[in-house]
Amino acid sequence: MSEEKRVGIVLVSHSAEVAAAVAALAKGLAGGADSVAVAPAGGTEGGGLGTSAELISAAAASVDRGAGVAVLTDLGSAVLTVKALLAEDELPDDTRLVDAPFLEGAVAAVVTASTGADLAAVEAAATEAYDYRKV
Amino acid sequence: MLDADFFRRWMTATAASVDREAERLTALDAAIGDADHGSNMRRGFAAVQAELDKETPGTPGAVLMLAGRLLISTVGGASGPLYGTLLRRTGKALGEVPEVTEAQFAEALRTGVQGVMKLGGAAAGDKTMVDALLPAVDALGDGFAAARTAAEQGAEATVPLLARRGRASYLGERSIGHQDPGATSSALLVAALAETAEG
């Protein structure tokens, strides 16, 4: 699979800083995952805490390489806004809201996407992050 | 019969009402949420109003579809996708006809409320906007004034409920004793509908 065809990852948080930092962390921990397009969509367009449909749509379009887009979210309106955009067909074809813990799921998704895995495998890896017990 | 202008006036009346009541909505949200419901709703419906002032679509369905899209893109909180879905599903169910009967509208609104319930995973009694909207839809067969009363009573009846959805659900028992902000703004939406019908 060519590098251009990797699954794109969008990270949606109520906070621009959280989304950007989790994106940087996931790419850093994935090591050499520069081939994976990861876009944060955090906060409102005005820079406040919240969710922006415009930022999410723009982020999804920016990481779409034709192999699908996995969207991970934090809470509440982030989840609902992505679901509403999917229902309205306002995100690229083959975009999925992935049911996963935000940070751990983002790391798993970016690492898996960097191997050239398909969208279903990226989604499965991110969701499996729920099973990682710490105690 | 209800035409596109009726639905434009409903949205205008809602924008005015949300603007008037924004402080109250935010105060209710401060008690059990994150204190942004009034400002979020005001921003969303102001955007709807501004767009409808420029150009009103020709059918009832198109007015509500446009309003719903704007709410999803401008509100910035959970009420954006929730109210956006309510209006878009309702608008879609109305189809592309230039006028609809009250019965057709009641049926379409029920579809919209079901869309909200599916999106948010909320049922009746979860202390959400559904607790105002469902009674309103059920009462709509008896007229717009009956729907307004049902929505207001439904919103007031959320006070003793335990929140099971949204941020308020994290508060558990401490959510009891507060009126739900979403149910309150939903009652405003339905009251604006009755106001519009009264002319």
Q: What keywords describe this structure?
A:
heterodimer, A: 135 residues, alpha/beta, Rossmann fold, four-stranded parallel sheet, 45% helix, B: 199 residues, mainly alpha, Serine Threonine Protein Phosphatase 5, Tetratricopeptide repeat, 8 helices, 69% helix, globular
Q: Could you characterize the architecture of this molecule?
A:
The complex is a heterodimer of chains A (135) and B (199). With 135 residues, chain A is α/β, with parallel strands linked by helices. Chain A has one domain: Rossmann fold (3-Layer(aba) Sandwich). Helices cover 45% and strands 14% of the residues of chain A. Chain A has five helices and four strands, in the order βαβαβαβαα. In chain A, α1 packs across α4 (102-114) and α4 packs antiparallel against α5 (119-128). By secondary structure, chain B is mainly alpha-helical. The relative contact order of chain B is 0.15. Chain B is globular, with a radius of gyration of 15 Å. The longest helix of chain B has 29 residues, at 4-32. At the A-B interface, α3 of A face α3 and α4 of B.
Please summarize what this structure is:
The complex is a heterodimer of chains A (135) and B (199). By secondary structure, chain A is α/β, with parallel strands linked by helices.
Oligomer kind: heterodimer
Instruction: Using the 3D structure, state the CATH architecture of chain B.
Output: Alpha Horseshoe
Order of helices and strands of chain B: EHHHHEHHHH
Total number of beta strands of chain A: 4
User: Which value, in Å, is the CA radius of gyration of chain B?
Assistant: 15 Å
Low-confidence stretches of chain A: none
Alpha plus pi helix count of chain A: 5
Categorize the overall geometry of chain B: globular
Q: What is the overall pLDDT average of chain A?
A: 93
Structural class from helices and strands of chain A?
Answer: alpha/beta
Q: Which CATH first-tier class of chain B would you pick?
A: Mainly Alpha
What percent of residues of chain B adopt helix (DSSP H or I)?
55-70%
Annotated CATH topology of chain A:
Rossmann fold
How many strand elements of chain B? Answer: 2
CATH superfamily of chain A: Phosphotransferase system, mannose-type IIA component
What is the strand content of chain B? Answer: under 5%
Any idea of the CATH topology of chain B?
Answer: Serine Threonine Protein Phosphatase 5, Tetratricopeptide repeat
Quickly give the structural class of chain B.
Answer: mainly alpha
Q: Could you give the order of strands across the largest sheet of chain A? A: 2-1-3-4
